[in-house]
């Protein structure tokens, strides 16, 4: 209903959408095909790589044995989960307090949150890096997780979500003897579920794929996350120049996130749309 | 995300909180619930940001031993350094290509998808690059753009054109990175526009039909485009900030080369701060970056505040 509808404009619009969709999906397709093709045959002048069974075994074998790829992925998983849980645990109570409780310092905190929204993530990284270096925490999970456990964006998002929540429900809960903390966890968290899902996707995508911060604080291969691991694989040992194995690694690193998104996409979009009301 | 910057400042005024709770108990609970966030906000965002501001006026290097205040020397060096001027130009070029393309394409896709029977399929396809590991997919792009035997050049040769050394020719490298940047951002913008489209009341389209705007472009210009204006402002600022912060593809594919043609601001900041450990100079770069982003955000808040007032006054 956004545009008028005639059959010729439908055909044009499908043509435009399909062309774009092919461009969007093509690198994924190429990555999967190349990950199944023997290294020597990937650049043989044909348009697309032609998969073979031994190519597949070779590439995935190299990706899993030449570098500790599973270890990288486990690191990434631990780091993303820790960041997400801490972000939500800190942001929900704060968002609730900012939306529904009046307390001294609240206006200042609101201004602080707004200011925090404006600060690009790269700005605080130099002092944080120096602090981590001085306390001997480089090359650790703490270094990967610590700078991100406060998400100003999450606080702001949840606060906006809670502002419209009916006060009567909260008052009834208080009369029933709920503490403010249990209100935050047992009433506000479920109420904010769509926002929690949307935020989780943003957070996990951002930290699983982040290269900048891991590149700054990690030099020990054992502590590398998936993205840094792939970047390191490109340059180190058997990975360098082995496009087939690199693509196998790429498939393994990309698959969890893409499947997570496919599972969650309905909730994710609902969260975004609800948030606008 | 869509809502984050769409809120007029006036909505942040104190609201009336729950009435059954005695004021003191409420104040106590509010403080307890917000203390962890407050401390972390100061320790990890605001404190370090202030520190960076001070460091930008010093000659600090990694150990912070023997820091001296050197006034605005870092800033004057930034302004006179041909290398930095080059990375500013590269960034501007990248932003100038990525921003209009990623926004226009995202809007077009959202508008076309909104009435398609295959909406879910299209939406998934366009969103995939947003969820993908950019490091892994950048490697796939590198292979597709391979100077002689990649898919892109095989295709060009089939069409009778001569091969292009996309990523290794200083004249094309930044455009190749921009193409990857557009590819990654279109889906994100599409989702935000879709969220915006879903809030447009159907009655507006019915009214437009009565007024004679019952087809394609007319409807779009009369209803869709004005109603999308707040989302568009938000999408524009987000896209500019993200384009300005391009890092992964540069770090993985070109390391700023060939011949400095892809050295962008954030990559320069990374090199100065974390590879050469020129902390003071890197701080000056990041402070300038911050000023730029703040300026953009303020402009956006102004625009959305004016819009909110305009709507409150009955619109039109």
UniProtKB/TrEMBL annotation, chain A:
Q: Which PROSITE patterns match?
A: ABC_TM1
* Keywords, sorted A to Z: Cell inner membrane, Cell membrane, Membrane, Transmembrane, Transmembrane helix, Transport
Topology relative to the lipid bilayer, per the entry, is:
Multi-pass membrane protein
What GO terms in the biological process aspect are recorded for it? Answer: transmembrane transport
Stretches that traverse the bilayer: 12-33, 72-96, 108-130, 142-162, 183-205, 211-233, 245-264
Subcellular location per UniProt equals: Cell inner membrane; Cell membrane
Of which family is this protein a member?
Belongs to the binding-protein-dependent transport system permease family.
Q: Subunit notes for this chain?
A: The complex is composed of two ATP-binding proteins (UgpC), two transmembrane proteins (UgpA and UgpE) and a solute-binding protein (UgpB).
Q: What is this protein called?
A: sn-glycerol-3-phosphate transport system permease protein UgpE
Q: Superkingdom of this entry's organism?
A: Bacteria
Relate the protein's function as given in its record. Part of the ABC transporter complex UgpBAEC involved in sn-glycerol-3-phosphate (G3P) import. Probably responsible for the translocation of the substrate across the membrane.
Q: Which Gene3D superfamilies match?
A: MetI-like
Any one cellular component term from GO for this entry? plasma membrane
**Residue ranges of domain ABC transmembrane type-1 in the record:** 73-264
UniProtKB/TrEMBL annotation, chain B:
**Which residue intervals define the domain ABC transmembrane type-1 in the entry?**
88-300
Transmembrane stretches, start-end: 31-55, 92-114, 126-144, 173-200, 220-244, 279-299
Q: Which domain of life is it from?
A: Bacteria
Q: Where is this chain's protein located in or outside the cell? A: Cell membrane
Name the Pfam families for this protein.
BPD_transp_1 (PF00528)
PROSITE patterns in UniProt: ABC_TM1 (PS50928)
Gene Ontology CC entries for this record: plasma membrane
Q: Alphabetically list the UniProt keywords.
A: Cell membrane, Membrane, Sugar transport, Transmembrane, Transmembrane helix, Transport
Record-linked InterPro entries: ABC_transporter_permease, MetI-like, MetI-like_sf
Q: Name one GO biological process term.
A: transmembrane transport
Membrane topology annotation: Multi-pass membrane protein
Family, according to the entry, reads as follows: Belongs to the binding-protein-dependent transport system permease family.
UniProt name for this protein? Multiple sugar transport system permease protein
């Amino acid at each position: 209903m956004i545009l008028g509808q005639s059959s010729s404009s439908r055909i044009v619009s499908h043509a435009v959408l399909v062309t774009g969709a092919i461009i969007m999906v093509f690198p994924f397709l190429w990555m999967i095909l190349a990950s199944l093709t023997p290294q020597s045959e990937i650049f043989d002048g044909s348009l697309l790589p032609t998969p073979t069974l031994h190519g597949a075994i070779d590439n995935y074998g190299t990706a899993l044995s030449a570098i500790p790829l599973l270890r990288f992925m486990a690191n990434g998983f631990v780091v993303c989960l820790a960041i997400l849980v801490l972000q939500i645990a800190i942001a929900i109570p704060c968002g609730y307090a900012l939306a529904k409780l009046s307390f001294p310092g609240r206006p200042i905190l609101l201004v602080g949150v707004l200011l925090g929204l404006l600060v690009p993530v790269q700005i605080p990284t130099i002092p944080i890096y120096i602090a981590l270096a001085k306390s001997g925490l480089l090359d650790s999970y703490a270094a990967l997780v610590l700078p991100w456990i406060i998400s100003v964006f999450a606080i702001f998002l949840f606060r906006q979500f809670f502002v419209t929540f009916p006060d009567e429900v909260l008052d009834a809960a208080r009369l029933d003897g709920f503490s403010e903390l249990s209100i935050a966890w047992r009433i506000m968290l479920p109420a904010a579920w769509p926002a929690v899902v949307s935020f989780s996707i943003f957070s996990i995508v951002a930290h699983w794929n982040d290269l900048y911060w891991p590149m700054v604080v990690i030099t020990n291969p054992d502590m590398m996350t998936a993205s840094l691991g792939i970047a390191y694989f490109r340059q180190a040992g058997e990975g360098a120049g082995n496009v087939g194995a690199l693509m196998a690694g790429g498939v393994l690193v990309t698959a969890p996130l893409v499947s997570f998104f496919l599972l969650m996409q309905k909730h994710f979009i609902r969260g975004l749309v609800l948030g606008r009301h | 995300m869509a809502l984050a910057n769409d809120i007029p400042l006036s909505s942040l005024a104190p609201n009336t909180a729950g009435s059954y709770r005695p004021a003191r108990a409420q104040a106590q609970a509010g403080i307890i619930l917000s203390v962890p966030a407050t401390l972390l906000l100061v320790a990890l965002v605001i404190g370090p940001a202030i520190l960076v501001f001070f460091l930008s006026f010093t000659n600090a290097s990694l150990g912070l031993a023997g820091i001296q205040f050197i006034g605005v020397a870092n800033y004057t060096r930034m302004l006179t350094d041909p290398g930095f001027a080059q990375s500013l130009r590269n960034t501007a070029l990248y932003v100038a290509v990525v921003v209009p393309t990623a926004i226009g394409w995202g809007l077009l896709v959202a508008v076309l998808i909104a009435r398609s029977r295959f909406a879910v399929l299209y939406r998934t396809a366009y969103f995939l690059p947003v969820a993908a590991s950019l490091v892994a997919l950048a490697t796939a792009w590198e292979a597709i753009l391979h100077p002689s035997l990649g898919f892109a050049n095989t295709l060009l040769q089939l069409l009778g054109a001569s091969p292009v050394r996309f990523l290794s020719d200083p004249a094309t490298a930044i455009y190749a990175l921009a193409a990857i940047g557009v590819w990654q951002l279109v889906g994100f913008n599409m989702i935000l526009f879709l969220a915006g489209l879903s809030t447009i009341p159907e009655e507006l389209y019915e009214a437009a039909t009565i007024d004679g705007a019952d087809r394609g472009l007319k409807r779009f210009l009369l209803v869709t485009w004005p109603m999308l204006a707040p989302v568009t402002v938000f999408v524009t600022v987000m896209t500019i900030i993200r384009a300005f912060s391009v890092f992964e593809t540069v770090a993985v594919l070109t390391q700023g080369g060939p011949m400095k043609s892809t050295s962008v601001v954030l990559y320069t900041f990374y090199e100065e701060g974390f590879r050469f450990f020129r902390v003071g100079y890197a701080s000056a770069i990041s402070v300038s970056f911050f000023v730029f982003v703040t300026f953009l955000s303020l402009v956006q808040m102004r625009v959305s505040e004016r819009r909110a007032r305009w709507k409150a006054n009955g619109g039109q």
